[in-house]
């Protein structure tokens, strides 16, 4: 693949959303500090690691090789303050930061994520290889979005023409789009920070709000008959048929226009807030 297609001299928000967001990777040399508005040091990493361990947080580690702290923003006030701003900018509620430090040539293996990721290289050098989601089975992508355990690890296609490769040095930025396969391997000592922007599945955007609306409207409040041991076979079948009929009626009521409007109102409130739109226009 032609590396120039994925490279720009600066990180321009308007250009990024038009040409790159959830379409293809972007590499910008020296853009990490401006993007983050700060830097991330070994001292910052060590302090966050101590807090994570003290709080019983699960730290992934191969001693002497690599240490990975998921959601490190929980343990660093400066990063925590930035998650809301980035979440608004990219329209991704629940945004967080991860960090990884390596001491030897190492990585965590090729995989794909149900999130958009911005890798901000702080120290050392790391080689990245990426490939499009076209190499992943569609059912695996669906399982990943539904957060099925054990889904995500996946080999890169062996053909070089199906991979795009980047060398990240201190200060560089790499955007990895949603579901793109990726593998990062450090040369030796390395420190990086990643902004994780989780995608929201349609089910997540509908079902919790639908449940909230139905509870508010007291739709489906009726107690169902108990399938107790005193029922005869005929009675049990009749009760099951009644439950089937009531279930159909409830599902039909869920598609009522008033219910739809109430659900979309909650979506607008929680997923498309005004501050998201304002941040995106900066």
UniProtKB/TrEMBL annotation:
Coiled coil location: none
InterPro entries per UniProt: JmjC_dom
Gene3D superfamilies, per database record: Cupin (2.60.120.650)
Pfam families the record matches: JmjC_2 (PF08007)
UniProt-listed SUPFAM superfamilies: Clavaminate synthase-like
Single GO molecular function: oxidoreductase activity
GO terms for cellular component: ribosome
Every JmjC domain range: 58-214
Broad enzyme group: oxidoreductase
Alphabetized UniProt keyword annotations: Oxidoreductase, Ribonucleoprotein, Ribosomal protein
EC number, as in UniProt: 1.14.11.47
PANTHER family, alphabetized: HYPOXIA-INDUCIBLE FACTOR 1 ALPHA INHIBITOR-RELATED (PTHR12461), HYPOXIA-INDUCIBLE FACTOR 1-ALPHA INHIBITOR (PTHR12461:SF105)
UniProt-recorded name of the protein: 50S ribosomal protein L16 3-hydroxylase
Species of provenance: Streptomyces nymphaeiformis
């Amino acid at each position: 693949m032609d590396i120039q297609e994925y490279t720009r001299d600066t990180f321009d928000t308007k250009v990024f959303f038009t040409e790159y967001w959830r379409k293809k990777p972007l590499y910008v040399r020296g853009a990490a500090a401006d993007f983050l508005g700060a830097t991330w040091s070994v001292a910052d990493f060590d302090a966050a690691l101590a807090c994570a361990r003290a709080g019983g947080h699960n730290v992934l580690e191969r001693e002497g090789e690599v240490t990975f702290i998921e959601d490190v923003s929980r343990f660093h006030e400066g990063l925590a303050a930035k998650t809301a701003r980035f979440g608004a900018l990219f329209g991704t509620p629940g945004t967080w930061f991860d960090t990884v430090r390596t001491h030897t040539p190492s990585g965590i293996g090729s995989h794909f994520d149900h999130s958009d990721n911005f890798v901000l290289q702080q120290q050392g050098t790391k080689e990245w290889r990426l490939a499009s989601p076209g190499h992943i089975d569609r059912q695996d992508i669906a399982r990943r979005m539904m957060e099925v355990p054990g889904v995500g690890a996946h080999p890169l296609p062996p053909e070089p023409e199906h991979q795009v490769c980047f060398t990240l040095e201190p200060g560089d930025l790499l955007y990895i789009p949603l579901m793109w396969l990726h593998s990062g391997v450090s040369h030796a000592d390395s420190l990086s920070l990643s902004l994780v922007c989780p995608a929201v599945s349609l089910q997540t955007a509908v079902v919790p709000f639908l449940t909230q609306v139905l509870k508010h409207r007291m739709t489906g409040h009726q107690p169902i008959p108990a399938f107790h041991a005193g029922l005869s076979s005929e009675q049990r079948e009749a009760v099951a048929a009644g439950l089937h009929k009531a279930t159909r009626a409830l599902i039909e009521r869920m598609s009522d226009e008033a219910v739809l409007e109430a659900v979309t109102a909650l979506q607008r409130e929680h997923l498309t807030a005004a501050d998201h739109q304002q941040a995106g226009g900066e």
